[in-house]
Amino acid sequence: MANRPIGIFDSGVGGFTVLKKLIKILPNERFIYFADSARNPYGNKNTKLLFKFAVEIIEFLILKKVKLIVIACNTICATCFDELKIMFKIPLISVLEAGVYATIRSNGKKIGIIATENTINSKTYENKILKLNSKLIVKSKACPRLVELIENNVYDNEISFEILKSYLKYFNNDIDVLLLGCTHYPYFISQIKNLLLDKIKIIDPSFQTAFFTKKILKNKKILSRFDKINKIQKKIIFYKNCS
Asked: Quick check: is 242 catalytic?
């Protein structure tokens, strides 16, 4: 069991931001990454359909004999994570839970959240943050165009800068912390920094997700026993749904 790979999935390439941190924190582990590119974006789809997608992907990863699954999609975590945890016995890690924890630890008083429409409309981030600290002020903004830009490799240019500018204008720099509530958004990190005051802390939940994953592996005593990953074993296996 310990030497089985870790599964990770997202609607597309956004989860790569989480995968990079997992590799850094867990250098002796192997990974199977599933990108549901054929059915993205997830941000505007109904919960019933998203649950169906998630179940299909989790069952696929279980067939690949993974020991744990990281759900690197905030939209899935916001809409149906609790149901998935009940349905499956395999350990599931939520990037959203990691984001909430990192936000609380930031000690910011005014929290801004940017995410997909489904994530924002679910109010999952807002409710979980306020449950832990009801004194915080939380403002959320849906950014429906950002995932599409990343999936089409159209970012870090004037077009994406202007789109980001229009979204971030909502906060008027009147926040202490900006939580990136979608794993695609770290691709825009340099542009976001240019649009915000230096005092505003930007939270990328992928760091905390990797630490959460390591903690669960330790607690369940299923950390990899590999000292070194060889070429035959393969560090990362990618699956992409293009149908």
From this structure: no
